[in-house]
Write a structure and sequence with these properties.
The protein is α/β, with parallel strands linked by helices. Helix content is 43%, strand content 14%. It starts with a helix and ends with a helix. The mean pLDDT is 97.
Length: 355
């Protein structure tokens, strides 16, 4: 069984030769891993660890003044949001400095925004990017189709957007419509260019905090769910697997996500209320597969490698009982995580025997 088959089987809750794997980390964390493993590139890290799930994207070729990757550098992104650097001793992050629709008062203000074009990406490069990920063996290729909650609030500002849900729902609808129309067209072009090389469509955006959802579940169902569904249901109908990311405590809407056609839920943040693997599997394990769940909050930065190995084995025992689990950290590995702890996750996977 190869990597691609392993992930796609897990999405259907089928046991495989070993649990499938995934990994992503901050630039600082990946640099530490490269040095620790004695390899030259992030791709070498992924291949050395035999990571099964791989993300691809098309390069940006749009206006230079809108070229900063979202949350990836100082400058302005394709939405018109601006970011500034924020550093600590372990990582460099980028925080919002400007929301282009923060001052919008009407739907006309939304319509008059300088919205991005799907033509700002070079989709012709996708086949080569996919081939590079498949250089050792066929991998499961995942593409980000966008989000219907985070991107809108990035553009509007979170406080404004949350208030709009109550006071100006027409502004919410106008922003979400533009965002999802854009993401739908960009994904359509990517799938066409990839010529069958994309296996999984990723959508999402954080709708949970550590203790509860960021917004009332019924408010989410009324105003956000219809747009989120547009980034899941059509791809499920095409025969692609679907993947949704949200940090935090989102148990109240997981049934809704399943109804929309979700196959894989990420990241199963185990310290968030109700998101521990035992509870999540008991409630949803017969209808949903899972990605993540190896705690990045306390375990990975502070435990020993042996403790990480043991914890990984326990999570596989819990979430992987029916095969529906892709082993990964519960979020991007941070720069304060010892690289030996990351390696311990994947050593536990290689050693795992189904019980």
């Amino acid at each position: 069984m190869n990597s691609k088959e392993r992930v796609l089987a897990a999405a259907e809750r089928k046991r495989t030769d070993r649990p499938p794997t995934s990994l992503y980390g901050t630039p600082e964390a990946m640099e530490r891993l490269r040095k620790y493993m004695g390899v030259a590139t992030d791709a070498d890290v992924m291949d050395e660890l035999d990571i099964d799930l791989r993300w691809v994207g098309a390069p940006f070729i749009g206006p230079q003044e809108r070229s900063t990757g979202t949350l990836e550098g100082e400058g302005t992104d394709f939405w018109g949001c601006r970011y500034r650097k924020a550093e600590n001793e372990f990582n460099t992050y980028f925080e919002f400095d400007y929301h282009p629709l923060a001052e919008a008062l009407t739907v006309d203000d939304v319509e008059n925004h300088d919205w991005p074009s799907a033509a700002w990406w070079d989709y012709s490069k996708l086949p080569a990017s996919i081939a590079a990920q498949n250089r050792v063996e066929p991998r499961a290729i995942i593409y980000f189709a966008g989000g219907a909650f985070e991107s809108p609030w990035y553009i509007r500002g979170m406080e404004n957007f949350l208030m709009d849900l109550y006071e100006n729902p027409e502004i919410v609808e106008a922003i979400c419509t533009h965002v999802v129309d854009f993401y739908t067209e960009r994904t359509r072009r990517a799938l066409a260019a990839a010529q069958g090389g994309i296996d999984i469509i990723n959508s999402g955006g954080d709708i949970g905090s550590q203790h509860t959802m960021l917004l009332d579940p019924d408010l989410w169902r009324k105003h956000i769910k219809p747009f989120s569904s547009r980034l899941i249901a059509p791809y499920k109908e095409m025969g692609l697997k679907t993947f949704y990311h949200s940090c935090g405590a989102i148990v109240p809407v997981i049934d809704d996500l399943i109804e929309m056609g979700l196959d894989i839920l990420d990241p199963i943040q185990p310290k968030a209320a109700g998101m521990d693997p035992e509870n999540i599997f008991a409630k949803f394990g017969d209808r949903l597969s899972f990605h993540g769940a190896i705690d990045e909050h306390e375990l990975l930065p502070h435990a020993t490698a042996d403790e990480v190995y043991a914890a990984t084995t326990h999570v596989i025992d819990t979430l992987g009982k029916n095969g529906g689990y892709i082993v990964a950290p519960a979020h991007a590995v941070q720069g304060d995580t010892p690289p030996e702890n990351v390696v311990a996750i994947y050593k536990a996977v290689q050693d795992y025997r189904w019980r």
